[in-house]
Amino acid sequence: MRRILALLTAVAATLVLSATPAAAGTVSVDYVCNGGSIVSFPATYLTTITAPASVSQGDTATVRIEYTGVVPWHSDTAAGTYTGQGGFKLGGAATGLVQAPWLSNPAIRAGEVMRFTGASAQVTFPNKGQVTFTPDRFFYRAGCILRNTASVAATTNVL
Fold this sequence. Notes:
The chain contains one helix and eleven strands. The protein is mainly beta. The chain starts with a helix and ends with a strand.
């Protein structure tokens, strides 16, 4: 009976540890954007990265990134008018620059802030420790690069 109880306790603990909620963080990021024939322009976006709060070493998980402008948009814009990809850097127990495809805008009315959503990427966690996620460049018709160093938006604990 004790062995069965110990086994059930171990199984329950494993299920709880593997079912961790997502950790999302939003940081304000200053970009410089250039859209081909358009003159470069500064833009600030509230950038949100959603990653798992914790994973096991060797796991692969989906990480999402989205952008919300802080200045009212100039015109009505249909959903999907702008498509592209987001980008973020890994730090700590993993390193690299990750591109997250499928970035797109929802329908926006003139005077609302522009949003870019839907971008995600699969990230593998090869080492134990903390992995940080920091916004990097993104593209939608304009290419936007960091104007200043961005802050860490999310962290995943790798067990």
